[in-house]
Design goal:
Order of helices and strands: HHHHH
Shape: elongated
Structural class: mainly alpha
Strand content: under 5%
Number of helices: 5
Number of strands: 0
Length: about 120
């Protein structure tokens, strides 16, 4: 149950906060939102990364779909990618790594503080 609450908080925060604040706000949010939870660092990385990546992938896909993938197609050609889906994979991978690392770092920091505190 605690893991489900963790996932929902990360999903909601990553979906709402970048609308109101700069795009990078999801990294400090993931870091701060991970503190109250007793979750393993590997799971925190996986769940935090998947939540962040899926939110960003969904937003980019929705925006790209609204203009018939014109901008994504041009960006795909400018970057020289062999297929357009690699652009969306990259748009998933970057927030996955950033969000997962922020969650895992918070859990590791909390463990470090408890063991030395």
């Amino acid at each position: 149950m605690e893991t489900l609450v963790f996932i929902l908080i990360i999903l909601l925060g990553n979906a709402v906060l970048p609308i109101l604040l700069p795009w990078w706000v999801f990294v400090p949010f993931n870091f701060l939102a991970s503190f109250p939870f007793r979750i393993q660092p590997g799971r925190a990385f996986l769940f935090g990364g998947i939540c962040s990546g899926l939110v960003w992938l969904t937003w980019s896909w929705w925006l790209s779909l609204s203009n018939n993938h014109i901008l994504a197609g041009r960006l795909w050609q400018v970057l020289g990618l062999p297929h357009q889906s690699l652009l969306f994979f990259t748009e998933f991978l970057i927030p996955f790594l950033l969000g997962g690392t922020a969650c895992m770092t918070a859990i590791k920091f909390k463990q470090f503080k408890q063991s030395n505190g």
